[in-house]
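lol ok so funny story. i was supposed to be doing the assay writeup but got distracted and ended up predicting the structure for this chain instead. priorities right. anyway since i did it might as well share w the group, maybe its usefull for someone
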Amino acid sequence: MADKTFAGLSYDAALQKYADTVAGVCVMRLQNWADAEDCFQNTFIKLFQKSPDFQSETHLKAWLIRVAINECRNYIAKNRRFLSLEHLEREPATREPTVWRENESDVSWALMRLEPKYREVLYLHYCEQYKVNEIADILGKSPNTVKTLLRRGRDKLKKMYGGDMDESSEL
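and the output, tada:
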């Protein structure tokens, strides 16, 4: 396994290159650093264990994002029926976490307030620079659904910011 490569990258190089991407997907999805770390680790463990063959680095990146999203979904489903004391003591869900309020010029705080379906597509489009068709493939949705989610997500962000944001605006 020591000489196994993933689209020409060693395991360590793949981990280093895509760590921020996978971490971003997990944090945006779970809104909790500890849970995101678990899903992050599981994503890279699956890469190591399954050792899939990739056609390109783009294919590797898309695979890692897809696995990270699935890991987060599985984590949420598995833990849905448990109610922790932390959850009871937390601020209302409509308020953004303190860590995201520190720099409101960074759109991360606003993305964290959106519903996951909007947060995912906006994050993939603006932060990871994926095109609509690529997002549709990653999320298993139709391109028209992705376009609708992007439009509605932008509208929600407009309301939060109180400004104008068009399709070409960068987050």
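Residues 83-105, 167-171 have pLDDT under 50 and may be disordered. The radius of gyration is 17 Å.
back to the writeup now i swear
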